[in-house]
Amino acid sequence: MVRLDRRRLEKLVKGFARVRLLVVGDVMLDEYLWGDVDRVSPEAPVPVVHVTRESMALGGAGNVVRNAVAMGAICRFCGVVGDDWAGNRVIDLLKDLGIDVQGLVREEGRPTTRKTRVEARSQQMLRFDRETEEPISTGASRALWAAVDAALSGSDGLVLEDYGKGMLNKRVLKGLMARAKEAGLPVTVDPKDHVASFRGASLVKPNQREVEQLTGIRIRSRDDLYRAVAKLRRSLGGSDVIVTRGGDGMTIFEGDFPPVDVPIAHSEVYDVQGAGDTSIAALTLARLAGGTLLEAAVIANAAAGVVVGKLGTATATPEEILQFLPAAADAARTGGRTR
């Protein structure tokens, strides 16, 4: 049985307010068209959505920033957007959060990643994306490094959020990891590609599907998972790894210790959009607040449990996490086991 101290977990969550976090990664503009469906189109066999409202939110690395701020942390952000309307909207949304936008680089001719979702009857009906996966230009890379150099000072830790949109390419990552090492900052990574470029990261958080893609090993059993993560960790130079596994919670691979499963407390799920962003924010803040990897995983499970109960890309406040924390801790105590 996993041993956890509830009061210590609560103290760690309250300690988020003292953490200064730098997030670097692919920012997106999430657009939502909300409406109702009561008929099928006479033009084609598709539902007709009567749009009743529209909303926008920061997505991708921007959603990590949103969650870090909602959880009480002091946050800085560095990223790249296009010189377009969507880029302007991203800047406005960051300003609304109180984020200094000096770390945002604008690349002329590059579209800002924009995802539009049509939601009706509490489910997503359709999504269409406007984006590019081309690497950012040499000039944008240099501007990004300069922005990171300015933001590293005074930060406690760095999150690299890679959505494969061309910003965190090998050239950029080499510069970022070298800067983090020189500054002595722990790095948490949500990877999409270029795993070897993240060598030296403190913690890497892929989901199970990403582990398969990164290692070429299809995971159909626990042994497959262990073999795949072992291969992944060799590429990373031994970084700790947490694999998020949806409804099965997380599995921790830390140092030379045996893997540890951290189950989730089952709750009503309305929408899983952005749950991974919430998880990496909570994991990183909990670690920087002084928590162990197990404690951080339990807190991250609690935070994810909050946001999947909301529609759209959502955030979790410390108060909401504290409400969900007893259930998350109980699930880890009764279902977690070390091998």
Notable features of this structure?
339 residues, 4-stranded mixed sheet, 9-stranded mixed sheet, 13 strands, alpha/beta, UDP-N-acetylmuramoyl-L-alanine:D-glutamate ligase
Notes on the protein architecture:
This protein is an alpha/beta fold and 339 residues long. It has helices at residues 6-14, 61-70, 85-96, 138-152, 170-183, 208-215, 222-236, 275-288, 293-307, 318-335; strands at residues 20-25, 27-40, 47-60, 74-82, 104-107, 114-120, 123-130, 157-161, 187-190, 203-204, 240-244, 250-253, 260-262. It has a single domain (6-36, 53-335), classed as 3-Layer(aba) Sandwich (UDP-N-acetylmuramoyl-L-alanine:D-glutamate ligase). The longest helix is centred in the C-terminal third of the chain and has 18 residues, at 318-335. It is globular.
In a nutshell, what does this entry contain?
The chain is 38% helix and 25% strand. With 339 residues, it is an alpha/beta fold. The protein is globular and about 60 Å long.
Structural class label: alpha/beta
What is the CATH topology? UDP-N-acetylmuramoyl-L-alanine:D-glutamate ligase
Provide the low-confidence segments as ranges: none
How are helices and strands ordered from N to C? HEEEHEHEEEHEHEEHHEEEHHH
Q: How many structural domains?
A: 1
Mean pLDDT: 91
Q: What percentage of amino acids are in beta strands?
A: 25-35%
CATH superfamily: Ribokinase
What would you call the shape? globular
Oligomer: single chain
Q: What gyration radius follows from the Cα positions, in whole Å?
A: 20 Å
Strand order of the largest sheet: 5-4-1-8-9-10-11-12-13
The main sheet comes to: 9 strands, mixed
Measured as a percent range, the helix fraction is 25-40%
Number of strands: 13
Q: What distance lies between the first and last C-alpha atoms, to the nearest angstrom?
A: 11 Å
The number of distinct helices, counting runs of at least 4 residues, comes to 10
CATH architecture: 3-Layer(aba) Sandwich
